């Protein structure tokens, strides 16, 4: 475990391949904002645990970590090419059980599977060795991470075209650099605005029960010098009513084919409030978060998490023992509340069914 004092983090990488030590270093996001600690992972089970326990979280970051987890799971494998291909698939199946909602997890694992198939499958060149295939899988995981950084910057460029200097922008949960390779999705325009001398005044919902907004969004924006005001989730309505918010932008864990959006619990409430106040509600995501195989939001599996996150979050009991608890980690915002979906290829508006499909075919 590598502990660094909390410092002026101009940029904090949530997922770091340590080529010197041949291991995966994951920023333990459970300890932010007080401590910057990197977990030093060498097995796929450690990656599975880190995803499950939200040491690493955020749809793209989960996919990137899982891709490295596949490599960790097969790098010491010795056996035939066919046996390695089978082992890659087994590792992907295992890592896919860590969390159910963020489609980037499955997108990244499918990409690792496809790479292995191309290297070791029936149509693969005979000269590919087990060793060269293992190295190629590490290269694929690193490519997924590098591409995500460029994707997030492009999302930021498109999103920024929707904002004006001095605007108030509300966001929910954390869809920032900590949730991706860099820049984030919903927070990407904030960082690009900073680069371009544009002032955006961000209102960050604390986002109960795990407080990704308070612990992560407020932290990373403050560290970067972005104007950020932390509010409780139940204050989103009043800051809109006061006219302090001109736009809402959030990330997402899965966009269904009809444009319904699964995101952190509480997002749906923010979307309804935005509609009531005539405020645009934007969703920022890479195309890897759009799942055309999931017809509607009703088909998106919603993770339910342990009751302790609500009754004794961060170790302090705040509810009676034995009380019934409902703790869905996500909710679904119907597409009619979504003003636009901002991707690396551009801004998509309704009708989402047609326009999301066009995104992949044009
Ligand atoms: C850029 S995806 C961020 C997305 O992931 C978060 O969920 P979690 O912290 O549980 O992984 C939240 O839904 C964010 O919008």
Automatic annotation (TrEMBL):
Keywords: Amino-acid biosynthesis, Isomerase, Methionine biosynthesis. It is an enzyme of class 5 (isomerase). The active site is at 253 (proton donor). It catalyses: 5-(methylsulfanyl)-alpha-D-ribose 1-phosphate = 5-(methylsulfanyl)-D-ribulose 1-phosphate. The keyword Isomerase applies. The keyword Amino-acid biosynthesis applies. Gene3D superfamilies: translation initiation factor eif-2b, domain 1, Translation initiation factor eif-2b, domain 2. GO terms for biological process: L-methionine salvage from methylthioadenosine. It comes from the Bacteria. The record marks 173 as: Transition state stabilizer. NCBIfam families: eIF-2B_rel (TIGR00524), PRK05720.1 (NF004326), salvage_mtnA (TIGR00512). This is Methylthioribose-1-phosphate isomerase. It comes from Paenibacillus tianmuensis.
């Amino acid at each position: 475990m590598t502990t660094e004092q909390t410092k002026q983090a101009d940029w904090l990488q949530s997922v770091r391949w340590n080529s010197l030590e041949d291991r995966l270093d994951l920023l333990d996001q459970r300890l932010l904002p007080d401590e910057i600690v990197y977990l030093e992972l060498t097995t796929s089970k450690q990656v599975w645990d880190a995803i499950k326990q939200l040491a690493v979280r955020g749809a793209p970051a989960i996919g990137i970590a899982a891709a490295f987890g596949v490599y960790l799971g097969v790098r010491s494998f010795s056996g035939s090419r066919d046996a390695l291909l089978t082992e890659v698939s087994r590792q992907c199946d295992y890592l896919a059980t860590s969390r159910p909602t963020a489609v980037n997890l499955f997108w990244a694992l499918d990409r690792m599977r496809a790479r292995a198939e191309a290297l070791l499958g029936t149509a693969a060149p005979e000269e590919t060795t087990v060793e060269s295939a293992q190295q190629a899988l590490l290269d694929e995981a690193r490519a997924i991470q590098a591409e995500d950084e460029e994707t997030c910057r492009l999302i930021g460029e498109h999103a920024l075209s929707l904002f004006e200097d001095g605007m108030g922008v509300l966001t929910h949960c954390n869809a920032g650099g900590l949730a991706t390779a860099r820049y984030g999705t919903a927070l990407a325009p904030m960082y690009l605005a900073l680069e371009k001398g544009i002032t955006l005044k961000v209102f960050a919902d604390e986002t109960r029960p795990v407080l990704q907004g308070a612990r992560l969004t407020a932290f990373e924006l403050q560290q970067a010098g972005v104007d950020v005001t932390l509010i409780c989730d139940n204050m989103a309505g009043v800051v809109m009513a006061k006219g302090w918010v001109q736009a809402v932008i959030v990330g997402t864990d899965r966009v269904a084919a009809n444009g319904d959006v699964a995101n952190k619990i509480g997002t749906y409430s923010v979307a309804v409030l935005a509609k009531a106040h005539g405020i645009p509600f934007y969703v920022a995501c890479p195309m890897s978060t759009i799942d055309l195989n999931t017809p509607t939001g009703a088909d998106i599996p919603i993770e339910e998490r342990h009751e302790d996150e609500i009754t004794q979050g961060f170790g302090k009991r705040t509810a009676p023992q034995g009380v019934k608890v409902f703790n869905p980690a996500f909710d679904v915002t119907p597409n009619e509340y979504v003003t636009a979906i901002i991707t690396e290829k551009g801004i998509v508006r309704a009708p989402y069914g047609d326009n999301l499909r066009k995104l992949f075919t044009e």
